[in-house]
């Protein structure tokens, strides 16, 4: 158990449209260590404050854009009694439906929003400072989103989705430019963590017939179990259990159609210790029992 609260998105966002945008100032910032299930993007509109993330303190100033991924502990603090205005955007990926899945295949976005914030090292800042021209574009977009959110006129959700998607695409492009200014050591650290994630997925789908555990695979990805499962859902469209089951069932379908092995042997070969659970899972995925599937594919 963590020693800080992890806020469920359903407690903070409308489930039918899991999105929210707010303006934070010194009197309304959250100074308690916490985490949440949803993704949070923050932009410092003016002033300066302190941001604590993964046990380290970072100074934020005007034009800084940063991401707080799910389950990542953080909090804000004032900086020498300085004033600040921050725009905070909270949302779940399915708020913009399939468009977010497209973004998840843009590596720069995954690096900025989900990989880089996990690396808790003093020389790798979990933020990027936007150049003045991009600041103006981002501020205009955020202003439109705020206006739509506050007015909530007919079609406001569609308008917010469109503007949010623009904001995320601009973030992708800017991070790509920003990454070219990083030192080789910084790029290597991000690449190492990214590769660990994809190697863990490969390990999972090539060792599906073994007695796999989420904790074991997540450790190979250098992530917590909950975060690894979240990332799988984001990138592959399936949680850990869903992806493992789909991989095992696909392998069993090939064995049913291409071998004379009995169902019990096939269940064991693809990683199921109990044939009854295998039969139940197989029917859930295919709509047929293993025996019926074999009859239709011989």
UniProtKB/TrEMBL annotation:
Recorded superkingdom: Bacteria
Pfam family, one: AraC_binding
Annotated ranges, domain HTH araC/xylS-type: 198-296
Presence of keyword DNA-binding: yes
Signal peptide (residue range): none
Coiled coil ranges: none
SUPFAM superfamilies associated with the record: Homeodomain-like, Regulatory protein AraC
Keywords on record: DNA-binding, Transcription, Transcription regulation
UniProt GO molecular function: DNA-binding transcription factor activity; sequence-specific DNA binding
PANTHER family the UniProt entry points to: ARAC-FAMILY TRANSCRIPTIONAL REGULATOR, HTH-TYPE TRANSCRIPTIONAL ACTIVATOR RHAS
Protein name: HTH araC/xylS-type domain-containing protein
